[in-house]
Amino acid sequence: MTKKSTGVTRKDIRRPFGARASPRKKRTLSEPRQYTLVDLERARDRVEAAERRVDNDRSNNPNRGSAGLERAQLELHDIESQLRVRGLLE
Predict the structure, then answer these.
(1) C-alpha separations of 39 from 35, 51, 55, 64 in Å
(2) 15-40 pLDDT tens trace
(3) How far apart are CA 50 and CA 70, in angstroms?
């Protein structure tokens, strides 16, 4: 006579929120980041570094590194515009 296997059944599994797989809550949007002048300086440094990377690239691909430069420029523009709206930048 063999012993029955004692595995875990689906009924034995307990979920943290009862019978539901996840809580039913609405997602709230997070507040936009409040940039500071330190963030502005960092963004300017990032743009300069990206420009140096594009200028020092020796490959035959003219678009190499341009995505990083565009991303850095876009972030710099966002930070500058938010600081202007808040009156921290003229």
Answers:
(1) 6, 18, 24, 26
(2) 665 555 556 677 788 888 899 999 99
(3) 9
